[in-house]
Predict the structure.
Amino acid sequence: MLDLWYTENHTDNVKFSIKTNEHILTEKTPFQQIDFFKSEEFGTFFTLDGLMMVNEKDEFVYHDMITHVAMATNPNIKKVLVIGGGDGGTVRELTRYTSIEQIDMVEIDERVVRLSQEYLPITAGKLEDPRVTLLFEDGLAYVKNKEDGYYDLILVDSTDPIGPGEGLFSHDFYNNCFRVLTDDGILINQHESPYYPSYAHEMKRAHSKIKGLFPITRVYQFHMPTYPSGHWLFGFASKKFDPLKDADLDAWNALGLKTKYYNTDIHTGAFALPTFVKEMLDDA
Ligand code: AAT
């Protein structure tokens, strides 16, 4: 039998490969190329422009960490905006909070959503929750046109800053996020990786822009086996709440949500950064 391997360049000198059982489909949309695969080790997964986005085996790490850190920091979050996140995993985690009243998801590429609904019900299964509104447009334009002080939380679940995701790393975008957030508002963004220089460069650029806009800006880390180097970050920016001093961790535990990665020890621990990362952020 032929071995079929999916291979991705993590740098010009490093490759990452997964043995696959099937290349389910390949499709070019006006925004990007989408490929879906089946594999033994990571289950079903999809890539955008040749980069791993989501797979069945480690998606819980990313989706727990993008959602629960902010929700434990401010339990009164009612209106949430998700930008990107077409696979639906972030929305799935949000729908577990009965306290959330409204979830708007703005995804540029409807095909990512439709294909995830077909092949990745594990992440897309809650997109039909009555509190969820799907909007297919560019997140950058969406925040530009949105009224001031609307959302309590914005989760930027975006691709890397090449292709359609580029605008979601711009000063203009972060500035509009600040404006559309309430006075209690929190912004979490996909913050790249500190390890390989090309990713670290983007992570520093993003951090320096956000630092100039929000009074509270932190970065927290998590372990993502299929992303380059496995060492990945989210940014936490807020107008008022500090994720360590203000988080009500007992209240979060009292909700009784069962999670596979996030817990309240991780909440605190994820903000403890290696020295080389601290130095990069200080100099950003
Ligand atoms: N839940 C983890 C999956 C992703 S995919 C990111 C999504 O962002 C994609 O579906 C893409 O179509 C969407 N997107 C890209 N640009 C925009 C935009 N301008 N407006 C709205 N949506 C957009 C994240 C993977 C992270 C990978 C890190 N290496």
